[in-house]
Specification:
This protein is mainly beta and 127 residues long. The chain contains two helices and eleven strands.
């Protein structure tokens, strides 16, 4: 099993920045070299892919809507994953979820293929 816990959400003005963190634990996380990702879900919308990072950190992919503004990173010593969000826009308002799965599954960007989810952290961007 893998447990994921997000933190760092909050209220920010348009153009501002936030850094989300996700703490991962569980033997499966380390033994299976899980890739990590972030998804988000706005009110009334489906959960959508934001970013993914491989176990080694060598490979990252982003949704077109956040490319150039968001950066995903990880620290395997601390079992942490981060999402640095810059130049935030009102349309970035959503609950952000940390996700874990083998890389080949996360790279599909499909939420149903995610093995483990955190409970989410709310990001609100005011105009």
């Amino acid at each position: 099993q893998v447990q994921l816990e997000e933190s760092g959400g909050g209220l920010v003005q348009t153009g501002g920045s936030l850094r989300l963190s996700c703490a991962a634990s569980g033997r499966t996380f380390s033994s299976n070299a899980m890739a990590m990702g972030w998804f988000r879900q706005a009110p009334g919308k489906e959960r959508e892919f934001v970013a993914v990072i491989s176990w080694s950190g060598d490979s990252t992919f982003y949704a077109d809507s956040v490319k150039g503004r968001f950066t995903i990173s990880r620290d395997n010593v601390k079992n942490m994953v981060y999402l640095q969000m810059n130049n935030l826009k009102p349309e970035d308002t959503a609950v952000y979820y940390c996700a874990a799965a083998p890389f080949i599954r996360l790279i599909t960007k499909k939420a149903p293929l995610v093995d483990y989810w955190g409970k989410g952290t709310l990001v609100t961007v005011s105009s």
